[in-house]
Structure formats: structure tokens, C-alpha cells
Design the sequence.
């Protein structure tokens, strides 16, 4: 029963938060202001740059693995088991 109460309370809190975020202040809603703040905050910019660096590292790793595997496969095809036994 406690789980159901928790779910209902969380749902109600979420609904109230959504309604509150739609309140207009000045030229925009609270949701718009918070979104702009989150997108342009120093922490957000740092996280975005770290994620971009991680994506670049993964792409470089993938290309190096692909080159290594294609080199290995080329070497294997040059000396196939059929040619080596003759």
C-alpha cells in the first residue's frame, strides 16, 4: 500500500511542477528560463565538451580497430591455409 501512495504522491507532485513551470514571468515561462539557464550554464557547457571529447575518442577507437582488423584479414588472405600447406 505504501508503494501506491508513493506513486500517487509523485504523480501529483509532477503535475503541480508541470503547471508551475508554465507560469509566465516577463516575456517567457519559467520553463523557458530554466531551459535556457541549463543550456548555457558553465556546468552544462563543460559536460557538453566532455561528451564531445568522448564521442571523438570512440570514433577514433572504432577507426583504429577497423584498420587493425582489415590489416589482419588482408594478411590472413595473403597466406591462406590452402597455400601454406602446398
Sequence:
Amino acid at each position: 500500500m505504501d508503494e501506491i501512495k508513493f506513486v500517487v504522491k509523485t504523480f501529483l507532485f509532477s503535475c503541480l511542477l508541470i503547471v508551475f513551470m508554465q507560469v509566465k514571468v516577463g516575456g517567457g515561462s519559467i520553463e523557458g528560463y530554466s531551459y535556457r539557464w541549463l543550456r548555457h550554464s558553465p556546468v552544462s557547457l563543460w559536460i557538453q565538451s566532455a561528451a564531445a571529447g568522448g564521442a571523438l575518442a570512440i570514433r577514433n577507437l572504432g577507426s583504429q580497430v577497423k584498420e587493425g582488423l582489415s590489416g589482419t584479414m588482408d594478411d590472413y588472405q595473403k597466406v591462406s591455409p590452402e597455400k601454406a600447406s602446398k
Remarks:
- The first helix runs from residue 2 to 21.
- The first strand starts at residue 24 and ends at 25.
- Strands lie at 24-25, 28-29.
- The mean pLDDT is 86.
